[in-house]
Design a protein that fits this description.
Transmembrane segments: 90-114
Keywords: Membrane, Transmembrane, Transmembrane helix
Largest sheet: 15 strands, mixed
Number of strands: 44
Domain Tag1-like fifth Ig-like: 747-857
Domain Tag1-like fourth Ig-like: 605-716
Number of helices: 12
Region (Disordered): 1-70
Helix content: 10-25%
């Protein structure tokens, strides 16, 4: 090995050295090739201006001792970057450097100078630490390394010169079998361990390297104290650690025996110098059923982990037993035992990553693991599994237990049982665990207007069949069933949140396993019937956009769903709940037009009744037949809409406790109020009624408003931006039993069924069909003109005496007719005497229903009239 200051501080592996330099019996030290003296101007380490805490405190200018230099030499790489201390370096340095300091310090004629020289000049570079075997009290360890004295590291020239001279004269120093004890002052001088070291011979000339290869019997010290130290180290509570070594070394130099000498040396580790827990990575995690399938004896977990090993250590670890613990509800409660685990043989090689294979076994789930914690309503298992599936780091605790290997020393098992090591499993995000989410047989229900504001019934509700494909994680290789599911879902439209779908109640589910295909993992097809799940609309504007797209979009509407799903599972371990599984899906909603693009909304009114009247309003009820062209059903506890014509508000209509299904819906009870708003509304109402009674095509515009759904005023306002135009529903009039249906002209007004004109008396009477089954209509004034061939006047009717039009079929009184005797129309009437003639009519009529009275204009076309003498 070269003594050039730029050479690596750690020597080559022993396996790379010539066979003459390897240890055969590992009981004596051997010398390696010597090299020339190193240059004083090229120190191996940069100097430090503060006291390093090694040995007795020197003066400020002598702070960098040989022990400090030796430690720093182990902390630097070829590039000079600082490294943390390693436990093998500590052990090797304590055992060897103390002995060598004693040898040098007591083997010279000037002990004080020699001791200072030895402390500052000693450089020891460990190359390997391996465990040859375990003993009943400790281990038999093999220590290899390179020792040399570097005089350039000594600060005082006088000490440096005398030291070089003395070591040149002495050449080599030999120790006999010696004993080293290591204590921890911060832990009340806890005995960390003892070492029995075989004879060592080293060349002490400046710059000469001696390769050391020996077997040391290391025995553990106070096990209780070591457990305390280990737990503090695992918990990160060690900010500073002092290690004090005491050695008793029999010495001789040449033929001179120097007796047994004692030396005490202290090393202080601070901050990053305190060794840290090695880094590790979980490489494989696999769950599967254990034991015969019929016995369902439990579940096994196979774990493969890679542990980073930066230490120059080499040994094999026999199989060890562990108990896997998980946190309880409260930190001060005892941890819950989840499983037993056993490691396979572990092979540790110097500075190579270590693979650890672990097999765990879960027989059942204790009640303390599955019972809900107070206040949070989640069990420790919920917290553990929920954190893992959401991608968060999950911590379990590993505690040693009895080793499955019979030849494992008892002290190892006892020590392992007292150590609890936290192990972090990095959770795996299952964002795509639930896929192919869809809704079928959707039924929307409007809020109940009589429910409280915080009641689920005060919100829109949806019933549907929820279908999903649940991908099974590759780690799960066991049978699983999902009898119940529930979720809390957020619904989005074009990236904007629409609202929340509350599926917090457990819903029964049917599960069917789908085997792997096309490179995809196995999955579970889950279907569940959801009944009246509340929808909380959080953005009325987004909801309005959704309704607009459903009404007028003409194509499927895509909604995005993000949910946290709770799944009740049945496994070999029993029944338990996996909570808060993240789920994303897309829901495609068909437009309200349905699959049939030509289907239209149709409405027919029957059983029209007058409930109340005022001078300007009429309250009515009717049974309505509706054709629903969509694929959606709806349940309406209460809804109120406003009626408009040509932009003028004419009244409102409302319904309670109705259900509408796709297709034909019969006899739906609806109430309405005729109440035109303002002079413009009154005028437009008269115009609409005139056109309607004349048989002309008319339309009504329906709009929602703040009171459409009383418990959801913002919902009604959001929908008020959109209106629905539909033809004014046709009224059902009674059938005239004296007249065949095929004798009625479909173009004739539905309220006038027939007429009889009397030439001799100059009168006319009309057969009227009233659409009101229980209320009479009164005609208080009429001014009408009859026409032949649409344009030729026949005569006029002016009558100001009121008469009643009762429900059903009735005949008007004989009304006086002022014939136009010279007109073409009158001639046509005479020519039709004894037969029938089609006529048209124009009239101004005043009608009255209860206290309500209204003047209308009426057009009558294709009125079939019988001409009598």
């Amino acid at each position: 090995m070269s003594d050039n200051p730029s050479s690596p501080l750690l020597g080559a592996k022993d396996s790379d050295r010539p066979s003459s330099q390897r240890s055969q019996n590992s009981t004596a030290a051997r010398n390696s090739n010597q090299s020339e003296h190193a240059n004083e101007a090229s120190p191996l380490l940069g100097t430090h201006d503060h006291y390093n805490g090694y040995g007795d405190a020197p003066e400020q200018e002598e702070a960098s001792s040989a022990a400090a230099s030796s430690l720093r030499s182990l902390q630097n790489s070829n590039s000079g970057k600082k490294r943390s201390w390693r436990w093998p370096s500590i052990i090797a340095w304590i055992i060897l450097s103390l002995i060598l300091v004693v040898i040098l310090g007591l083997g010279f004629a000037i002990p004080a100078v020699a001791e200072q020289y030895a402390k500052e000049a000693t450089v020891f570079e460990p190359t390997s630490l391996s465990i040859d075997s375990f003993t009943s009290t400790g281990v038999l360890a093999r220590i290899q390394g390179d020792f040399r004295l570097d005089g350039s590291k000594v600060h005082k020239k006088a000490v440096r010169d005398l030291g070089r001279l003395g070591t040149w004269i002495a050449r080599a120093v030999q120790s006999k079998e010696s004993h080293v004890e290591v204590y921890l002052p911060e832990y009340d001088d806890l005995l960390l361990g003892t070492a029995t070291v075989p004879p060592v011979t080293v060349n002490i000339r400046d710059g000469v390297t001696t390769h050391v290869d020996l077997l040391a019997d290391l025995a553990a010290g106070d096990l209780d104290g070591l457990r305390h130290l280990a737990n503090d180290w695992i918990a990160g509570r060690i900010g500073q650690l002092s290690v004090r070594g005491v050695a008793k070394v029999p010495l001789k130099s040449g033929i001179f025996r120097l007796g047994t000498q004692s030396l005490s040396q202290t090393i202080v580790f601070q901050g990053d110098e305190v060794p840290a827990i090695p880094q590790y990575k979980i490489e494989r995690l696999n769950f599967h059923e254990a034991g015969p399938k019929d016995s369902r004896s439990g579940m096994a977990a196979d774990v493969s982990a890679i542990i980073t090993n930066d230490y120059p250590i080499h040994f094999d670890v026999p199989p060890l037993g562990f108990n896997i613990l998980v946190p309880a509800c409260e930190p001060d409660q005892p941890r819950i035992s989840l499983a037993d685990a056993v490691t396979k043989d572990i092979h540790i090689r110097a500075k190579e990553d270590v693979r650890v294979e672990v097999v765990g076994f879960l027989r059942d789930l204790p009640d303390s693991l599955t019972s809900a914690c107070p206040e949070i309503q989640k069990s420790p298992l919920d917290i553990l599994v929920g954190g893992y599936v959401s991608g968060a780091a999950t911590t379990v605790y590993v505690q040693g237990s009895d080793s499955p290997a019979k030849d494992t020393p008892q002290w190892v098992a006892e020590f392992m049982r007292s150590i609890v090591l936290p192990v972090d499993f990095q959770g795996k995000s299952f964002d795509n665990l639930i896929r192919n989410f869809s809704l079928a047989d959707v039924n929307f229900a409007l809020p109940n207007p009589f429910s409280g504001p915080d009641s689920p019934d005060s919100k829109p509700r949806v019933s549907a069949i929820v279908k999903a494909l649940v991908a099974l994680p590759e780690e799960m290789n066991f049978d699983i069933d999902i009898p119940h599911v529930r979720a809390s879902s957020e619904i989005y439209y074009k990236g904007k949140k629409l609202g929340n779908l509350d599926l917090s109640k457990w819903q029964k589910a049917n599960t069917q396993r789908v085997e792997a295909h096309d490179g995809e993992a196995p999955s579970l097809a889950v279907s569940s019937v959801v009944k009246e799940a509340p929808i909380d609309i959080t953005d009325e504007q987004v909801f309005a956009e959704v309704v607009q797209a459903m009404l007028f979009g003409g194509k499927d509407l895509q909604l995005d769903v993000q949910a946290a799903v709770d799944v009740e599972t049945k496994t070999v371990l029993g029944d338990f709940v996996v909570r808060d599984i993240p789920a994303k899906g897309k829901v495609f909603v068909k437009p309200l037009s349905g699959d049939d693009k030509n289907a239209k909304f149709d409405c027919q009114v029957g059983s029209l009744r007058i409930l109340d009247t005022t001078a300007s309003t009429i309250k009515l009820s009717a049974n309505v037949n509706i054709t629903n062209p969509t694929n959606y059903s709806a349940t309406v506890p209460y809804a109120n809409i406003k009626l408009f014509s040509n932009g003028s508000e004419l009244g409102s209509a409302w319904a309670q406790n109705i259900s509408v299904k796709p297709g034909k819906n019969y006899n739906i009870p609806v109430e309405s109020l005729w109440d035109p708003v303002g002079p413009q509304g009154v005028a437009q109402g008269r115009e609409l009624l005139s056109q309607y009674t004349s048989g002309l095509d008319t339309n009504l515009t329906l709009k929602t408003h703040k009171g459409t759904i009383p418990t959801q005023p913002m919902l009604g306002l959001a929908l008020s931006n959109f209106s629905i135009d539909l033809p004014t529903p046709a009224l059902q009039t009674p059938r005239n039993p004296s007249k065949p249906d095929d004798d009625r002209d479909p173009r004739a007004p539905s309220f006038i069924d027939d007429a009889i004109f009397h030439i001799f008396t100059s009168t006319a009477s009309f057969t009227l069909l009233s659409p009101l089954p229980t209320t009479s209509i009164f005609i208080t004034w009429i001014n009408a003109t009859a026409y032949y061939n649409h344009t030729e006047p026949v005569g006029g009717i002016l009558y100001d005496l009121p008469w009643e039009v009762p429900p059903g079929v009735s005949v008007s009184p004989k009304l006086p007719v002022d014939y136009d005797l010279l007109g073409v129309g009158y001639g046509a009437v005479k020519d039709a005497l004894g037969g029938r003639l089609q006529m048209d009519a124009k009239a101004d009529v005043t009608i009255k229903v209860g206290r309500w009275e209204q003047n209308l204009w009426v057009l009558g076309r294709h009125i079939g009239a019988s001409i009598r003498l």
